[in-house]
Design goal:
alpha/beta; 412 residues; 6-stranded parallel beta sheet; disordered C terminus; 39% helix; 14 strands; 14 helices; 2 domains; Rossmann fold
C-alpha cells in the first residue's frame, strides 16, 4: 500500500467539532510530513474540486450532512466510472440519530415527535417543539433521519470518539474507527489554570441550552452547597447564567463569558482562575440518558488540559476514562465520579474543604490528558486509521440516490 496517499478534508460549518475532529487531525498529520489538505467552510468551490480530484481519501465532518453528502457520493461514483479510481468517503459523527435530545438544537431538524415540557418552577406545561411552528416539521424530519441513516450506511467508514457510540452505529456500518477528541497543547492549550486564591472557591459549569436537563439535575445540589458554603461561587461558561441566577441567586453566580472561537475558548479555559469544575449528566429519563451516553468525555479532557480538577457523572462517557475509586490509590485520582445527589454533595463538599486534594487531582488530570489526548503525538496513529480505511473500501455498485436536494430523503 502506498503510504504517501492524500487525505482531503471538508467542512461546511465552523466550530469546535470541525476543528477537533477534522482540521486538527489533518494538520497534525501534515506537520509530520503526511499529505493532507483541509478545505474549510466557505472555501472556493474550484479549489475544493481541484483537491478532491487528487484525493485518495475524502474526510467529512458531521457538518457536511444530509443536504450535501449525496453530492459527494455522486462525485465518488463519477470519478470511479471515468478513471477507475475509487475514493473512499469517511464521515466523522458524534450522534446517534435515534436519540437526539429535545434540548439540542439538532432536534429542530431530526426530532420525531412533539415535545411538551413542564416548567420545574411554575409547573406550567408548554410545547417545546410543535409541528409546523418555529421551523419544526415532522414530515421533513422523518425524511432527514432516513437520509442520515442512509449516509451512515453508504460512507466507506465512520469515525467516532468513543466505543459506546461505535457499538450503537455498527448496525448501520461495520467499518468504524474510534478516534478520541485530542487537544493541541502546542498551539491552543498553552496555559495552566491558576485559582484566584481570594477566599472564594469557584466551581466551573460549562454548557449551553442543550444541557438544560443536566443543569436541572445538579441545581438542587448546588443550591445546598452555596447554602452551606456561602464563599462558593458557581462560574457559568456558556448560555446558562440565567438558569443559575434563578436557581441559586445572583450573589452566588459569576459569568465567565463564552468564547465561540475555538482558539479563544482554549485561552479562556487556561485563564479562568477557577478551583474546580463539574460535568453532571441527566440520566433519569431513558431517552436523555442514551443521548448523553453517546457523547464524548471532552469536558473532562478540556478541564484536564489546563489542570482543573473535575467531578463528573459516574456514567459513560466519563466512567471508562477517569481514574477514581477503591481500586485506584487516592494520590493517583485524575477526577472524581458521582451518581446520585447525595454522592454529588459529598464529592463537592469534600473537594471544597480540601485544596490539596483539588491540586493533586488537577495535576493528575493534566498529566493524563497530556499523555493520552495530546494531538501532537498522534500523527502516526491518525495515519494508521486512514490506512485501515483504505483497506475497508471497495466498489459495490452505484448508490441509488432518490434526490440530492438539501433536506430531502435518499433511498434505503
Amino acid at each position: 500500500m502506498d503510504e504517501n496517499f492524500l487525505i482531503v478534508g471538508k467542512s461546511s460549518i465552523d466550530g469546535a467539532h470541525e476543528w477537533l475532529r477534522c482540521e486538527q487531525r489533518l494538520k497534525v498529520m501534515g506537520d509530520a510530513g503526511y499529505r493532507t489538505i483541509f478545505m474549510p467552510a466557505g472555501a472556493d468551490p474550484k479549489v475544493t474540486e481541484h483537491w478532491l480530484n487528487r484525493a485518495d481519501i475524502f474526510m467529512s465532518g458531521q457538518g457536511v450532512g444530509v443536504g450535501t453528502m449525496p453530492h459527494y457520493f455522486m462525485w465518488r461514483e463519477e470519478t470511479y466510472r471515468k478513471t477507475g479510481r475509487y475514493v473512499p468517503i469517511v464521515w466523522d459523527v458524534d450522534d446517534n440519530p435515534d436519540f437526539i435530545s429535545p434540548w439540542n438544537s439538532a432536534y429542530e431538524n431530526f426530532g420525531q415527535e412533539e415535545v411538551t415540557i413542564v416548567n420545574p418552577d411554575t409547573k406550567v406545561e408548554r410545547l417545546l417543539w410543535e409541528n409546523g411552528k418555529g421551523g419544526f416539521d415532522l414530515v421533513r424530519n422523518q425524511l432527514s433521519v432516513k437520509s442520515y441513516k442512509f449516509l451512515l450506511k453508504h460512507v466507506d467508514a465512520l469515525i467516532v470518539t468513543q466505543p459506546y457510540l461505535a457499538d450503537q452505529l455498527r448496525k448501520y456500518n461495520p467499518n468504524i474507527e474510534i478516534v478520541p477528541n485530542d487537544v493541541d497543547f502546542k498551539n491552543h492549550y498553552r496555559f495552566r489554570n491558576q485559582p484566584q486564591r481570594d477566599g472564594k472557591v469557584r466551581i466551573l459549569y460549562m454548557g449551553g441550552s442543550s444541557h438544560f436537563l443536566d443543569w436541572k439535575f445538579i441545581a438542587p445540589v448546588l443550591k445546598s452547597i452555596v447554602a452551606q458554603y456561602p464563599h462558593v461561587r458557581i462560574c457559568c461558561f456558556g448560555d446558562i447564567r440565567r438558569w443559575a441566577i434563578s436557581d441559586l441567586g445572583e450573589e452566588f453566580v459569576e459569568d465567565m463569558q463564552w468564547q465561540g472561537d475555538y482558539k479563544s475558548f482554549c485561552l479562556k479555559m487556561g485563564t479562568m482562575g477557577v478551583d474546580m469544575a463539574i460535568a453532571p449528566l441527566a440520566m433519569e429519563d431513558p431517552y436523555e440518558a442514551e443521548f448523553n451516553r453517546c457523547k464524548s468525555c471532552l469536558k473532562w479532557v478540556d478541564y484536564g488540559a489546563v489542570g482543573i480538577p473535575c467531578i463528573a457523572q459516574n456514567e459513560i462517557p466519563y466512567s471508562p476514562e477517569i481514574a477514581f475509586g477503591e481500586n485506584v490509590p487516592d494520590l493517583l485520582w485524575d477526577g472524581v465520579l458521582a451518581s446520585t445527589h447525595e454522592e454529588w454533595f459529598l464529592a463537592l463538599s469534600t473537594m471544597i474543604e480540601n485544596p490539596t486534594m483539588r491540586e493533586t487531582i488537577g495535576s493528575n488530570a493534566y498529566q493524563t490528558v497530556f499523555k493520552k489526548w495530546n494531538s501532537g503525538t498522534k500523527a502516526d496513529e491518525y495515519h494508521a486509521v486512514f490506512e485501515r480505511i483504505l483497506g475497508y473500501s471497495k466498489w459495490t455498485g452505484e448508490v441509488d440516490l432518490a434526490d440530492v436536494s438539501p433536506g430531502i430523503a435518499v433511498a434505503d
